[in-house]
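Support request from a user on the community tier.

User writes: "When I paste my structure tokens into the form, the page sometimes reloads and wipes my input. The last time it worked, I copied everything first. Here is what I submitted, just in case something in the input itself triggers the reload:"
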């Protein structure tokens, strides 16, 4: 059974801060024994591509990359917010 529909619904509910519905989706996934694969991101560092799994612990280099990505995300979020003002 595919988990994508459950995860999408859960994300939509979370965006709307409908936490009871988020919990309901998670409960359904557990009850129906739906296989959920950990998400990942890929970041280019020079000529090397690094993949980060959602369940992995970060080492020092990974933490530095994560800090840059978080900083970029904040800048983009701020920029998008400013467009609406």
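"...and here is what came back when it finally went through:"
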């Amino acid at each position: 059974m595919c988990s994508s529909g459950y995860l999408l619904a859960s994300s939509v509910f979370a965006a709307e801060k409908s936490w009871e519905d988020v919990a309901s989706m998670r409960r359904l996934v557990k009850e129906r024994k739906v296989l959920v694969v950990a998400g990942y991101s890929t970041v280019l560092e020079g000529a090397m591509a690094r993949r980060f799994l959602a369940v992995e612990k970060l080492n020092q280099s990974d933490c530095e990359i994560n800090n840059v990505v978080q900083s970029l995300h904040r800048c983009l979020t701020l920029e998008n917010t400013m467009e609406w003002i």
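Agent notes: The reload is a front-end session timeout and is unrelated to the input. The mean pLDDT is 81. Residues 60 and 76 are 25 Å apart (CA to CA). Escalated to web team.
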